[in-house]
Amino acid sequence: MVSTLYVYGVLFLQASTQMDIRSLLSSMGLLARIVVGILFILSIYSFGVMIDRALMYSAARKQSRVFVQQVAGALREGKLDEAISIAERNKKSHIAKVVATGLSEFQSASQQVSDAEVIDAAKRGLERSVAIVHAEMKRGLSALATIGSTAPFVGLFGTVVGIINAFKGIQAEKATGLSAVAGGIAEALVTTAFGLLVAVPAVWAYNYFTNKVEAFDVEMDNSSMELINYFILRRGGKK
């Protein structure tokens, strides 16, 4: 294995002294160009998802800090309408979305006689809201996981095709030696390098954003439990 990698490295270095990236791409076969094009599209898409998720999570974190500080005072004073309006002003906050749904369900169910029915309705509303927000937070992450796991194989496919073309060239030209296969091997290794260049950032970003979503889930679950406790105390205080 080590000797094979060494030979590939020698071939790639020898080819790189004879051609730059532009000339290497122009000398690629049609199938290798298609592979590089697919990898380029996957790279653009994955970076788009990374930027979108980073902006969304940053906004959710910032607005949640503001929302928690503002809504605490409104809930202490029993101003549910004001708390809902505060949540609507912080629409990018994951906690605000959950709390707004819970408050709305509690208000709509408050006309019922049974306290248990009111609390159950609020719980169901909070659970639905947490599930919806969780799905919104995870949007695009499955694509990053797919790109991270498949991009190396797409590059490997181009590598196999490049090596086959290199040996076909040897057979056609009846030539031997490293110089006869250097161009084909270099073409093959370029597709592998592109595949890894696309896959590695996608995998890193997927793991990083998945940890972020898990932290958001914990915050939403804690907020839901605290809101349920607030509803129980509020209903008990009215008796």
User: Secondary-structure element sequence?
Assistant: HHHHHHHH
Give the strand tally: 0
* SS element count, helices: 8
Biggest beta sheet attributes: none
Low-confidence stretches: 1-19
Description:
There is one protein chain. The protein has 239 residues and is mostly helical. It has one domain (2-237). The protein is 88% helix and 0% strand. It has helices at residues 2-16, 21-26, 30-76, 80-89, 94-109, 115-138, 141-173, 178-237. Helix 3 packs antiparallel against helix 7 (141-173). The longest helix is centred in the C-terminal third of the chain and has 60 residues, at 178-237. It is rod-shaped, with a radius of gyration of 28 Å. The N and C termini lie far apart (78 Å). The relative contact order is 0.15.
Summary tags:
8 helices, disordered N terminus, 239 residues, mainly alpha
Question: How would the blueprint of this fold be written?
Answer:
Elements: H1 2-16, H2 21-26, H3 30-76, H4 80-89, H5 94-109, H6 115-138, H7 141-173, H8 178-237
Helix pairs in contact: 1-8, 3-4, 3-7, 3-8, 4-5, 5-6, 5-8, 6-8, 7-8
